[in-house]
Amino acid sequence: MHDWNLTPQQARELQQQLSLKVIREDRFTTPHFVAGVDVGFEDGGATTRAAVALLRFPSLELLEHSIARLPTRFPYLPGLLSFREIPAILEALKGLETAPDILLCDGQGLAHPRRFGLACHLGLITDTPSIGVAKSRLIGTHTELPAEKGAWVTLEDKGKIIGAVLRSRSNVNPLYISIGQRISLASAIHYTLACTTRYKLPETTRWAHRFASG
DNA sequence: GCGACAG
DNA sequence: ATCTTGTCGC
């Protein structure tokens, strides 16, 4: 795997190179295990704490989880989130006994300036199908979104579809879904909804967040 | 130059 | 992300 001690400019150049390796179509078999990934911070940001929650699919029962702590060594810079969070996430993934069939990541995938958000980066490194599930927008524009659960509209940038704005729960702010690696946008939306019950966030993300934060 | 800006 | 209680609305 590549080096993580990069300057912001080197990181951006690496993203442009790696973005060429992102596979935007379904390349996986029926999933039985889905995982949520999230990161939290301790010591006022000095320590990065990553958590991964593995759930059985489609029952969504929690099977196992893993937590890892690492010294924070990259600042938060819009567009470079993966360089700050992935090192700790990779450590947490090592602690799982079962390999996830799909990763639901807390952040963007293709809906990124250089089409290489955290979900693409993590999916590529682990060679695992991944989905970007962000709570807010990084880039892109979209039309009005109906208020009912299940409704979605495309998220576009420079005339290209880079993701979808999905209403995962009626009358609540939408989620920003995008391709991470080895999955189509249609499937990304499908699996995100399949992992969602009565709340805005998928159960995978909810569990991961509980383990990564409070 | 000004405003936007995943977590 | 994080610092933090009550409060408004379906």
Automatic annotation (TrEMBL):
Pfam families: Endonuclease_5. GO terms for cellular component: cytoplasm. Its cofactor is Mg(2+). It is found in: Cytoplasm. Mg(2+) binds at residues 38, 106. It is an enzyme of class 3 (hydrolase). One of its GO terms (molecular function) is deoxyribonuclease V activity. It catalyses: Endonucleolytic cleavage at apurinic or apyrimidinic sites to products with a 5'-phosphate. GO terms for biological process: DNA repair. Keywords: Cytoplasm, DNA damage, DNA repair, Endonuclease, Hydrolase, Magnesium, Metal-binding, Nuclease. The record marks 76 as: Interaction with target DNA. Its main location: cytoplasm. Its EC number is 3.1.21.7. Gene3D superfamilies: archaeoglobus fulgidus dsm 4304 superfamily. It comes from the Bacteria. The keyword Metal-binding applies. The keyword Mitochondrion does not apply. InterPro entries: Endonuclease-V. DNA repair enzyme involved in the repair of deaminated bases. Selectively cleaves double-stranded DNA at the second phosphodiester bond 3' to a deoxyinosine leaving behind the intact lesion on the nicked DNA. Belongs to the endonuclease V family. PANTHER family: ENDONUCLEASE V. This is Endonuclease V. The gene is nfi.
